[in-house]
TrEMBL record, chains A, B:
Identification of the protein by name: Acetylornithine deacetylase/succinyl-diaminopimelate desuccinylase-like protein
Residue spans crossing the bilayer: none
Keyword presence, Transport: no
Entries under PANTHER family matching the protein: BETA-ALA-HIS DIPEPTIDASE, SUCCINYL-DIAMINOPIMELATE DESUCCINYLASE
InterPro entries, per database record: Cyt/Met_Dipeptidase, Peptidase_M20, Peptidase_M20_dimer
Keywords in alphabetical order: Hydrolase, Metal-binding, Protease
Highest taxon, organism lineage: Bacteria
GO molecular function: metal ion binding; peptidase activity
Every Peptidase M20 dimerisation domain range: 202-360
Length: 466, 466
């Protein structure tokens, strides 16, 4: 049997697997909980640890980038080839809080391997998936006989993802020249399940707002005045009820303007996935499926824009009763956006719509917190095809497509850097992100290393540099 | 000029006015704030003071009735005539909290007379209006040459009205035999204004509930699951929006069953009142009038049943945003009821309606806090005619009719004792109940004494005893 690139990669990985896992365990021992100020020093230690490891991996340039919050790590390894495309890998080195008493069977910051799984906070989200790129790039060099990657490889590993990425856009904007690239590879997502390797092709966008309604200048007596003056709680509820029509479509005029409809092919690809609605409802802690008529559950969460009530508050909420007409009401709404929608236009549609719904005597304010754009890579995009081929070589299986219903900092990279965002992740739903006993499947983790090892050559061949 | 009963009453009142006001001032000095446990001894002192004064007035039986809360005062003065009807006068001796720093120009518990007004907490609500019955019954005896009233006169003056009358129904039930009567006269209301003497003919009833909706077992991610599972905040809002139709009529099937519609005469009588909508909106601290189509503001608040949202709560209500589908939602609703409506049937209608509105996946609970029945005395009721004539003799003006939009313990007396409830009050909106600088107009207060003095003979002549 001759040495193919694939067999070299596998041999290289097998040889270095034990050291790789020892190193990862060291990193997982650092409780880099970004949401807890008491762990600020640990988050910094985690950044420094990663920086040292990336230097050891061979990255000639490694820097810790400060923000007004937690530090990020930047690393760069230029290709020796001319006209090589440039890629930024995105991930994060901070983790969710975790404590033994939350239901962990073992110390969340003392990694344990059992039955082929590595248990620790951050094993899957996201240290494990960041770390597979270190062994991946070494295997890539070994298999191709290179001393530098086939692409100009940059890593940007942030430290605040689990606490809201507050300073991330700022960071990307400040370093936009250093981060210039042809594509972003996000390694902070997962696959459909253990038996169904998939590539995520996009995330929904998000814009969220607060609507305050003002009625009487103070709470007033519902006996003396009720039924004869407008009640802001009633009007807030009528707004929410008017958000959707009988088919549960969003009823705000202009909301769907520009929405990129699913193609027949995309719907078929979604339908090929082994979706189990009962299991999905369990994961949603929910007792019924309900959404826009004419779409399946997967289509609703991956490819359709939504209007959701995140919070409602008005009047008396204590024990018992208080017969008032409340003075004010407050609504928190979030809108998930899909490709083709413009957040600014959606915001204006919401403002116009609210203004037209309210009766005389109710004053209102609408304030948006922000907007994250949707991202979607077309199925025939050359970089996406490279990711699919790299995953296919690692898994030896047909690679299917998923999307993410959520929204994330990946979209900032897309927007600021003006490039497509691709996803390379091997985590599975059972990994328990943010939950007790988070784990990563070791076999899948090594497939991640393998896919990363194949990706750079494929991209260099197939994705044009600009 | 010969001595008519009216002139004797006036002369008697003039003669005793100074002593009457001195006594009232003494009572007003007792800060009988029932809502504040620190004033429990003052509330008891107020009851004892009143009991002593009623004995001095001539009531042969005076008792302080204990409750699990504050004490009430009961007094009884039987008529010497056979077949005399029996009347219970209702009022209360406790007052709202008051402190100089709330905006009082003088000490709220040190009565001050200025420009024909007596300023003190309780001057109008309700000590002044209870107290006019003491001089009233004496003037009645003087004018008719009696040594006992023309009716069997009973007084029930409770001590918890300003803190929710928690033990009042219990008290009335426990003493139902002692309180047996042919009619109740409530002296705890007011008139239209200084220039428009009126008699209130009824109050609305009330039943209020809490509706809890349960969706996902915990708050869930609106990106991962939103748009594909039912959201209890959305469903709560849709319930509220469905409470009223486009004409702002209550849309719950069966809600209007039995409602006693306004007659043409009643509507004309309402329309005769000098209603100033702008002034009324100011008193409602509101910026628009809105209610059931086809009815005026006065009709809406006095004679139409309503469904009002008193409170709404779901999901995230803090600063900023949190992109969740909330697990639960809570609604507080109150329904004002009018004559002819049955609170039990309304409650069942609400339960049935809620159950039919919710999608699969939303569990719900409906709990009612209680029910107060509406009361309404027909315009041609002989006892109401007596009240109108007594007021007419006191004021020398046409007496018009009002109603109360609120609900009160008067309805308990109606229900437990099974008799009509009538209202005799001389307070005016500018008296500032529950507000700083509460006052009573001394001229109106003395008209109250006069009306009370005339009422007992008229009732004895015109209202049959049972």
């Amino acid at each position: 049997m001759s040495d193919t690139p694939d067999s070299v990669v596998r041999a290289y990985i097998d040889e270095h697997r034990a050291a790789f896992l020892d190193d990862l365990a060291d990193w997982l021992r650092i409780p880099s909980v970004s949401a807890d100020p008491a762990h600020a020093a640990d988050v910094r230690r985690s950044a420094d640890w990663l920086a040292a490891k990336l230097t050891e991996t061979g990255f000639p340039t490694v820097e810790v980038w400060e923000t007004d919050g937690a530090p990020a790590v930047f690393a760069e390894w230029p290709s020796l080839e001319e006209n090589a495309p440039t890629v930024v890998v995105y991930g994060h080195h901070d983790v969710q809080p975790a404590a033994r008493e939350d239901g962990w069977h073992t110390d969340p910051f003392e990694p344990v391997v059992k039955d082929g799984r590595l248990y620790a906070r951050g094993a899957a989200d996201d240290k494990g998936q960041v770390f597979f790129h270190t062994l991946g790039v070494r295997a890539h060099l070994a298999a191709t006989g290179r001393t530098a990657p086939a692409v100009n490889l940059k890593l940007l590993i942030e430290g605040e993802e689990e606490s809201g990425s507050e300073h991330f856009t700022e960071l990307v904007r400040a370093h936009a020249d250093r981060l210039a690239c042809d594509a972003v590879i996000v390694s902070d997502t997962g696959m459909w399940d253990e038996n169904t390797p998939t590539v995520c092709t996009g995330m929904r966008g998000l814009t969220d707002c607060q609507i305050d309604l003002y009625g009487p200048d103070q709470d007033i007596h519902s006996g003396s005045f009720g039924g004869a003056v407008p009640n802001p709680a009633t009007e807030a509820a009528r707004l929410v009820a008017a958000l959707h029509d009988a088919d549960r479509k969003v009823a705000i005029p202009g909301f769907y303007d520009g929405v990129q409809e699913l193609t027949g092919t995309e719907r078929e690809l979604f339908a090929e996935l082994p979706f189990d609605e009962k299991g999905w409802l369990r994961s949603a802690h929910s007792h019924g499926a309900l959404g826009e008529a004419g779409y399946t559950t997967l289509e609703r969460i991956w490819a359709r824009p939504t209007a959701e009530v995140n919070g409602l508050g008005s009047g008396y909420q204590g024990h018992g009763s208080k017969t008032i007409v409340p003075s004010t009401a407050q609504l928190k709404l979030s809108f998930r956006l899909v490709a083709g929608q413009d957040a600014d236009r959606v915001q204006q549609s919401v403002r116009d719509w609210v203004a037209g719904q309210l009766p005389d005597g109710i004053r209102h304010e609408v304030g948006f917190w922000g907007a994250t754009r949707p991202c979607l890579t077309p199925l025939d995009h050359p970089a996406l095809q490279s990711v699919v081929r790299a995953m296919g070589r690692a898994f030896g299986q047909k690679i299917r497509f998923t999307r993410e219903g959520g929204s994330g900092p990946a979209a900032d990279l897309q927007d600021v850097l003006g490039v497509p965002v691709l996803f390379l992740g091997i985590s599975v739903p059972s990994d328990g992100w943010h939950a007790p006993n988070e784990k990563v499947e070791l076999d899948l983790l090594m497939k991640g290393v393998e896919a990363a090892a194949h990706l750079w050559s494929d991209l260099a061949e197939n994705m044009p540099a600009h």
